[in-house]
Amino acid sequence: MDPFLSFEVTVPGSSANLGSGFDSIGMAVNRFLHLRFSPAEEWTVTAEDESFREVMQKGDNLILEVMKEVFQAVDQQLPPFRLEVESEIPLMRGLGSSAAAIVGGLMAANHLLGDPFSVQELFRRAVHREGHPDNVGPSLFGGVVVASWDGEKVHAVPAPLPPFSVIAVIPELPLATSRSRKVLPAQLRFDEAVLGSSRANLLTAALFSGDWDAFGIGLRDRFHQPFRSALVPGLNRVLQESVLHGALGAALSGAGPTMAVFTFDPKSVRQFVEKVFQEEGIPVQVLTLSPQAEGAVIRLTEGMRS
């Protein structure tokens, strides 16, 4: 392959589920994964973030794995390059770090191949790699994505970008998605499934209509949060009490442990959650985020080396 122009892939993080929209609704947020590629004689991967360096030292590089899979699909060899990774998305905290890595790897590989795959095909590949569409959809497309996947076909519809802020409450304890999945039941009672489904329907309608009172009700999940609450200290209190402090409602972000609190009054909500975790004795990072309209993008950067 001929030397390529240096380029950068920028991918937003995401908050998935939004309560009752379990495995089907996600929202991009303004924290980003930056992947900077330049030609080189051999593969070199560096990371500014210590946690990313630790992961890569263990030989687990999801970005390269995804890129190699794309090249193998078209019977080509992945060319050597220098990759610099910079991430504002915490690892294993429920803000879409794995989904952003998958989307970033797909975008980069497609770019190097001359863009043979459409965005919809990249989405399909991302969903198959990730296992569900609610993180990869927002990271790829931006905004809010409502999606369904039956194991083969995936369908997605963009929803209007909400005007509220998102207070991300990030406890300083990782929670593997695999562990968070294990606590989920194999089945729900019929009445619980109906209630969960009705709230997901209400959540979706509220996102399209801008009915924020209905949105708060729609956040009240029955599919996963009741079973995961024991894994996330402080979750129940945030879910139940945040509305008393200026929030529309709250939800576990992805598989957790991050909690997303949706509000038009971020100052009051920040004070509330900081107090909760001070009383719980758990160190947390609290971020004020915004829904992110733009999804993954590629920009050429200066310089070309042989």
TrEMBL record:
Gene3D superfamilies: 3.30.230.10, GHMP kinase, C-terminal domain. Residues 205-279 form the GHMP kinase C-terminal domain. The keyword Transmembrane helix does not apply. Pathway: Amino-acid biosynthesis; L-threonine biosynthesis; L-threonine from L-aspartate: step 4/5. Keywords: Amino-acid biosynthesis, ATP-binding, Cytoplasm, Kinase, Nucleotide-binding, Threonine biosynthesis, Transferase. It is found in: Cytoplasm. This is Homoserine kinase. It comes from Kroppenstedtia sanguinis. The gene is thrB.
